[in-house]
Amino acid sequence: MKKLINDPEAFVEETLEGILAAHPGHLKRVPGTPRGLMRADGPVPGKVAIATGGGSGHIPVFLGYVGPGLCDGVSIGNVFSSPSVEAMVEVTKAIHGGAGVLYLYGNYSGDIMNFDMAAEICEMEGTRVATVRARDDVISAPVADKLRRRAVAGLFFAYKIAGARAEEMASLEEVVATAEKAVENTRSMGVALSPCTIPAVGKPTFTLGEDEMELGMGIHGEQGLERSKLMTADEVATIMTERVLADLPFGSGDEVSVLINGLGATPPEELYILYRRVHQILQERNIAVVKAFVGEYATSMEMAGASVSLLKLDDELKRCLLAPARSPFLLQG
User: Fold this and answer.
1) pLDDT of residue 111
2) Which of 8, 129, 274, 278 is the most exposed, fewest CB within 10 Å of its CB?
3) Average confidence (pLDDT) per 10 residues, the chain, 333 residues
4) Phi/psi of residue 26, nearest 5 degrees
5) Where does the chain have alpha helices with state H?
6) 234: how many CB neighbours lie within 10 A of its CB?
7) What SS3 state is found at 228?
8) Which domains does the chain have, with CATH numbers?
9) Is 104 helix (H, G, I), strand (E, B) or coil?
């Protein structure tokens, strides 16, 4: 294992220390927990607060999307592990501005258990909490069972849309409805070219041959659609895009936002080659791209690979997508 770290057991804490030191104008630590961060100007009185969280190893998810127009606070667990109930409770208390709190996170069992327990504690103490879970991975379950689907990079769209709606001072019910609409209209699929190594474990999470790839693999290395010989960028982009388009489905005349996401070790040039083909396919289908995001938005340590996400837009979702947002990892407007 080759990594620029110190003690593997201090990986999360030292990461958070570095981020806080680098971005003091954006973020501050949540009192009462070393694993919680919040926007530097929070809490914002009268605004619905958005809390997120999950395991470390995915930067910019989750802590990269805390700031105006995005989330208000985040709790971080060990690599690929859920944050604690206690950390989520402290984050909720710290960011609550009086209008309720939305828990917005990925659809994973450990996170669900701990976030639900934190919500129960906060509700008993008088804070209204609602929950929306991203579930955009089309490979992880069939359409008929889509509530079981796991989240991948499409969670980014939920942050952006819900964060903008909350910034408009919408009610908790309104923010929940808009966030749920963003989730319902987002579809993703990924591909992995190599594994990653969790610092505390010291060995790869899975194995792939030098000439192999896995289509549909999850962001933690969960089993995908199929393992095959390496394909060209155009072949991979075509398979993923057509699978995503058919799932909602997307159709002629639709407007979309596209996210081409790198998993940690994929060069930007390769991501733009993928986007080139995705854009061609959308043009052929008469689907208009309102805004494209190309880069690392939800990583998996040093895993090589990428994902394609599409968000189908209406007037409300488009307005929220294009609204200003500011965090250490996203600056828009």
Assistant:
1) 97
2) 8
3) 92 97 97 96 98 97 97 97 97 98 97 98 98 97 95 97 98 98 98 93 90 92 90 98 97 98 97 98 98 98 96 98 97 94
4) -105, -40
5) 11-22, 85-95, 109-124, 155-167, 172-184, 233-247, 268-284, 315-322
6) 15
7) strand
8) 8-184+322-332 (3.40.50.10440), 186-314 (3.30.1180.20)
9) strand
Rounded to the nearest integer, the mean pLDDT of the chain is 96
Preceding peptide of 249 cis, ω within 30°: yes
**pLDDT for 221:** 83
Q: Is 220 among the residues known to form the active site?
A: yes
| Tokens of residue 2, six digits | 């080759």
Which candidate in 23, 58, 96, 279 is catalytic?
Answer: 58
Listed as own residue / partner, the contacts of 5-8 with beta carbons closer than 8 Å and 24 or more positions apart are 5/199, 8/199, 8/200, 8/202
With contact defined as beta carbons under 8 Å apart, do 331 and 160 qualify?
no
Helix, strand or coil for residue 131? Answer: strand
Catalytic residue among 23, 26, 96, 220: 220
